[in-house]
Amino acid sequence: MYVVGQYPRFLRAHWKFLKTVVNKLFEFMHETHDGVQDMACDTFIKIALKCRRHFVQLQPNESCTFIEEILATMSTIICDLQPQQVHTFYEAVGYMISAQVDQVQQNILIEKYMMLPNQVWDEIISQATKNVDILKDMAAVKQLGSILKTNVRACKALGHAYVSQLGRIYLDMLNVYKIMSENITQAIALNGLAINNQPLIKAMHVVKKETLTLISEWVSKSNDSQMVMENFIPPLLETVLFDYQRTKVPNAREPLVLSTMASIVNKLQAVITPEIPKIFDAVFDCTLDMINKNFEDYPQHRTNFYELLQAVNTHCFKAFLSIPPNQFKLVFDSIVWAFKHTMRNVADTGLNILMQMLQNLEQHPQAAQSFYQTYFTDILMQIFSVVTDTSHTASLQNHATILAYMFSLVEAGRITVSLGPSADNVLNVQEYVATLLKSAFNHLTDNQIKIFVTGLFNLDQDVHAFKEHLRDFLIQIKEVTGEDDSDLYLEERENELKKAQEEKRRVLMTVPGMINPHELPEEMQDE
């Protein structure tokens, strides 16, 4: 099985052999010897990816396409597979169907392809309309979770074409999501957080997560943003956002809601800008209240919250300009909170959001001047506080990039509002930074601080030199306090190790057999 999967070009050139191999894989899917079914499914999906077109074309001396044969006997083929193996099988068949260019034929294939999971889905939904308590039954909830996982894999393979199946189950799926959420919230309210570890509640969480994963997966692969926006987003926002906001128990709030919204914003971009205030109203305050007490609680909510903020900042920046000043202050404070984080991924995301925001503001001069007047010196203070904090040394490159950009704005006269008592903003900023540093590091001489501040302006066009200037200043601070300054070169050491690893991999790739075939670049896909 392993060997035949490595020669897609040969399989594509010899249809009879390809068909024989696939039929043999179907036989192995009934073999209960340890590992055989897994290998059969893994080989099947590799062949499906690399030879997909051959399954939907009518081959010589055949009465129908092979995909039609597979769909007609699917229940027999998968009857002995475990759920995760069934999911792999469905993804493989989905890749084959994705190669059908005739949309009408493709939709017919998709309907046959999803017939088995849809029958079980329809039966559970039908029972739930008569008695909603069926959605508290362990067997039913587990089946729903498995069906949704099958749909996720089908969507991954089919791409936008999955829309015909999604439309069929979409509203029922959102209703199930809502009921599962209510069940979880009630259980936590009655029994405390420990109930989250109970199998039934875990299974309900799976249904919620797979629903969000499916929507996120399809939106990311869709090719008609307007259709998504008009037909799929309104019921999604109404169900998912309302549920997130009204859930009073923070632990019952699904962090995947935030990353799903982020992926939707990343895909739809400016099209979804009018909906951003509604999204923020639902998720912003309640999530911020969960994560602003310390740097540790709710790590997944933290990461996903800043993913969403970054997506809005990148694609829907105008939405930030239309929200009330007090809400924008919350956005700004949350960005500062992010780059002060001890979790490096959150800190770097916060710095990236801030840099992007500063660049975006340059496209909106009036809003920019108001922003600079309110926040410019505050940003300087906050960035210098993390630059001089040893736990943030690894982000020195990002700190240097932001500070160099800010000093260049001042020097170029892009900031027309006054940042201090003087008419010259360069003098205002020099004085502000010097006072700031002197109060924080009173062991430094006035001359040391003066030279450092002057250099911040002199080097603001060369980020690398600016970064070295920052590092020299940090070394001066550490020399006086007697601290170890080796961590200031952490980023360089990380880059050196990364380059060494890449070079090692490049050398290994030149020697046949030294790299696992699955890790090699895919050059033989059957597009």
From TrEMBL:
Pfam family, one: CRM1_C
SUPFAM superfamilies: ARM repeat (SSF48371)
Subcellular location: Nucleus
GO biological process: mRNA transport; protein export from nucleus
Lineage: superkingdom: Eukaryota
Coiled-coil intervals, chain numbering: none
Domain annotation Exportin-1 C-terminal: ranges: 165-482
UniProt keyword terms in alphabetical order: mRNA transport, Nucleus, Protein transport, Transport
GO cellular component labels: nucleus
Family from the record: Belongs to the exportin family.
Protein's recorded name: Exportin-1
Source organism (scientific name): Culex pipiens pipiens (Northern house mosquito)
Taxonomy of the source species: Eukaryota, Metazoa, Ecdysozoa, Arthropoda, Hexapoda
